[in-house]
Write a structure and sequence with these properties.
By secondary structure, the protein is an alpha/beta fold. The protein contains 18 helices and 20 strands. β6 and β7 form a beta hairpin. The longest helix has 19 residues. The termini are far apart. The relative contact order is 0.09.
Amino acid sequence: MITMRLENIGMNANSFSVLSSVVSRKLLERGCAMGDSGMKISIVLTDKMKDDEYHVAAEANQVKIATGGTSGAFAGMGAYLTNCKFDGYGGFVPYEGELALKPENPIHGMYFASHFQNFYEAAPIIENQKIIEDLALRGCNALMLWYDMHQFADVDTPESVAMIARLKAFFQHASAVGMKTVFGTLANESFCTSEPAIRAEWTVQNGYFALPRGHYHVEICPNKEQGMEEILDQRRRVMAAFSDVRLDYISIWPYDQGGCTCSKCTPWGANGFLKTMNALHELYSEILPDAKILCSTWYFDHFIHGEWDAFKEAINAGGYEYIEYLFGYFANDEHVPEYIRQGNMPAGKRMVAFPEISMYGATPWGGFGANPMPERMESNFRENGKLYCGALPYSEGIFEDINKSMMLAFYSGRTDRAEQVLREYAQFELCLQDGLVDDFVRLVYDLEQTLNREPTDSAGRPIDLTDFPNYRYEELRFAICNPEKALEAERLASKIDASLPEGIRTGWRWRIIRLRASIDRELCANNMHFSAEFEKCMGELRKIYHADKAYYVVAPLTRQAVCDGLGGTI
């Protein structure tokens, strides 16, 4: 059995300890181990390289990973391990040669949407920390989290205290593996106990042609008497609760939830939002002087015309030099103005992308297992990647693990080819060999071709997910597209499953892929209706996701979930 030992030359002791633990875990999963003898891997920090840059020089019995910081140490180790060959039974062929990466973008990270009782909110903290570690091995250098104020009465309620402790544990672990920390906020969000007299307005008025999406009706209007003071008081208390963790960036968002349609705030993105952001920046400068600001342009022009243009004019006029990056739109969004598509950013600011990797194609998100989208991810990046200086993809759970790998590879500049990422994933994460790697690639592309589906009743009439309790479980249908591809995906998944070592075969990364193929097979075999085997698969997904209380948008379709209204509404 192969053994490895790590040598620390300049790395922070705590981060090196975490790296050693992570490497030990990944080796044990593959039948190998750490030891006091065996192959030596030296981690060498140098001030001649950037924090997330690495150079790997690998010989048969020793490896040197040179880097400028902790992020590069994890990414370099991940690159080396990925290029080795493990069979999952202890067999190991070390990589020999050189690997190097100087990331093209300053931010190649991930956003964990910790809400709806999804994996990030419900799974044990240690399981989430393992996800953070594995992302660091793939080159993730930033983690964004959001403390959702609206669901709490105040910062010090028991539920709030528990959530804050959870998020801080995530941030602290992210820092230990070299990631930048990004604290997500909405400009005028509030606790649910906000005074009705100062709440934001949200009706269609003053030029608004649609209701601001995601409004919880507890948000605060900064232009009402005492409104701004309350926003700043609440935010000061929130930031005090996070004062013992390092925050590198603070993102400030306009909508979803957020915004105000009153005459003094309209148009929100170029008026009330900017006023609130300026006030928040003053507060953050006082209590977090080193944190940089990401200004989101999320949902501009979705609810009122001319918002982008008005925002651009305001930013170009000056006074917003403190904004490090713009942030937060989908590159293929039809409401993005042409000058943005041409790279003409307001005030010449660079922009960080917010790619969607979770929700496309099927609701519940991840409710049918893995949702890999190699064609969509690659084409979107090729078309739009040049507009950005990095990305924080929107993640709702672990079911898009393959999509995470592609996004990190693309935005770090390591590759723009989805197939390359899939082959590396197959070889390292699943220990597949030779022709089975080809089978895995075909399987993943087939799963993308069969992802789209919508809920209907027995007669094929579309239904609202929130009305599920009004339907019998046996009545529901999800008609998948390209059913012939689903049958081929099942054949490939069955073939791969039979070849895997037990530890890999039963691990969650493979199980969510295998379950997806089985679920689609059952739908095809039962005229797109649910079956006993379908329900069994859903039960396993529910356990993997820790989705016992998940809201319908992230709840696997067990009979209990459907009968209970899928865990709540939003």
